Amino acid sequence: MTGRILVVEDNADLAFGLVNNLEIEGYAVDVASDGAAGVRRAREAAPDLVILDLMLPKLDGFRVLRALRDGAFAGPVLILTARGEEADKVKGLKLGADDYVTKPFGLLELLARVEALLRRRPAAPGPRGEDVFRFGGVELRPRSRIVTKNGRVVELAPKELDLLLALWRRRGEVVSRNDLLRDVWNYSDAAVTRTVDTHIGELRRKLEDEPSSPRHILTARKAGYRLEP
Length: 229
What we know:
The chain is of the alpha/beta class. The protein has eight helices and eleven strands. The chain has a five-stranded parallel beta sheet with strand order 2-1-3-4-5, with helices on both faces. Strand 10 and strand 11 form a beta hairpin. About 3% of the residues have low confidence.
């Protein structure tokens, strides 16, 4: 079986061993050594499957998994970790993981699980099979990351689109600036920046009929922002 696999693992020796064995099986393999790099590489390389450690620097595996699913990555994710607690397994599965292997693991078992996940993955849906979220004259296709307004494609910067997707995932709810900074820019709660406000302004300029009086991308005073259909 062939396919592209992203390994997000900070243990260099383990990552090296995984790459060697996966490549022997015919897979193309990319590696990221921390969580933030894993999210970036997943967006760039569009892997067919992600093998994800939980104990990662910069961004732990749970947050990486959440970022992947919020970013409309629909491929299988196999969590590979030393954590064997049931609560961690349940949390990972609820966040969208497809399988879970605890270290130490048998290589043959891991390869079998990878093959099984790739074998049963659905064919990529065409545009007609994709969910579409609408507000006003805007259509958002989260899986393909396409935004149109009145039938014309709107060119959004990558972070503008990530911000729109983060609001879409919690549409109708107020999302604080700090939550958006963590989800979109991986900043800590202590970060002080006008980045969110600037990007919200650009989204309104590109998507609202009257940016100065927005109907959909709304400000919750002193609390954050929310997206309303």
